[in-house]
Automatic annotation (TrEMBL):
UniProt similarity note: Belongs to the methyltransferase superfamily. RNA methyltransferase RsmG family.
PANTHER family named in the record: S-ADENOSYL-L-METHIONINE-DEPENDENT METHYLTRANSFERASES SUPERFAMILY PROTEIN
Assigned GO CC terms: cytosol
Primary localisation category: cytoplasm
Name this protein carries in UniProt: Ribosomal RNA small subunit methyltransferase G
Top-rank lineage group of the source organism: Bacteria
Enzyme Commission number, as recorded: 2.1.1.-
Compartmental location: Cytoplasm
């Protein structure tokens, strides 16, 4: 029998055309419990109430699945923190090949724990910066999806993410209600990096102000100069 948090997850996901079975629900429950347990010693999230975890972490992550085809994509989750949105998307679509990128070692320790705890395969964890990863020949321009949930200007997220995408790949960036203005300001940077705004989709999360999802498509190879050195995209956005 599902509790109220699980029911909100099921109902909202179903409204988005996403289906979750009993095994997936059990994995989400384990994920929430381990997040709270680890958070007592390691600062992973300020959101610790069960239903809030399900809405503000799980559903906020699953909303990204409304914008891509689940057919065996490779997904890079930049600034993954405690695994959002990458791990919920992996639970939804187990065939996704997932790379979690996080610069803080205490957080990647949790990521490794939760991947093992949930028995997930096809997941890699990288402790390091997106600026460096973007110049790795094994990762650059090889992925179909990049997510960046971190609170950063779209120009910065684009410089982190577009170098990792293959042509036709998508950068998915959750944003607030001012996404249209931010996207308009980022248009020159997107063009410089080989991308273009595809859409800004509304995201309705139960009980929360309206959010949006900015979707950027990779149309051309990214100039080898980008991303710039560590810290430079944030200090001097394009």
């Amino acid at each position: 029998m599902t509790d109220s948090a699980e029911q909100v997850l099921l109902t909202t996901a179903h409204a988005w055309g996403l289906q979750l079975d009993a095994i997936q629900l059990a994995q989400f429950a384990d994920y929430a419990a381990e997040l709270v347990r680890w958070n007592a010693q390691t600062n992973l999230t300020a959101i610790t109430e069960r239903e809030a975890i399900y809405v503000r972490h799980f559903l906020d992550s699953l909303a990204l699945a409304t914008q891509f085809d689940s057919a065996a994509p490779t997904l890079v989750d930049l600034g993954s923190g405690a695994g959002f949105p990458g791990i919920p998307l992996k639970l939804l679509y187990p065939n996704v090949e997932l790379l979690l990128v996080e610069s803080v070692g205490k957080k990647t320790a949790f990521l490794q724990h939760i991947v093992n705890h949930l028995g997930l395969s096809g997941v890699r964890i990288h402790t390091g910066r997106a600026e460096s990863l973007g110049h790795d020949p094994h990762e650059r321009e090889r992925h179909s999806l990049v997510t960046a949930r971190a609170v950063a200007d779209l120009r910065v997220l684009a410089e982190y993410g577009l170098p990792l995408l293959r042509l036709g790949g998508l950068l998915l960036a959750p944003k607030g209600s001012d996404a249209a203005n931010e996207a308009a300001a980022a248009a020159p940077a997107l063009a410089k990096l080989g991308g273009r705004l595809r859409t800004i989709a509304p995201v309705a999360l139960p009980g929360l102000p309206e959010r949006t999802l900015v979707v950027i498509e990779k149309l051309a190879p990214t100039d080898p100069r980008y991303p710039r050195s560590v810290g430079m995209p944030a200090r001097r956005p394009l």
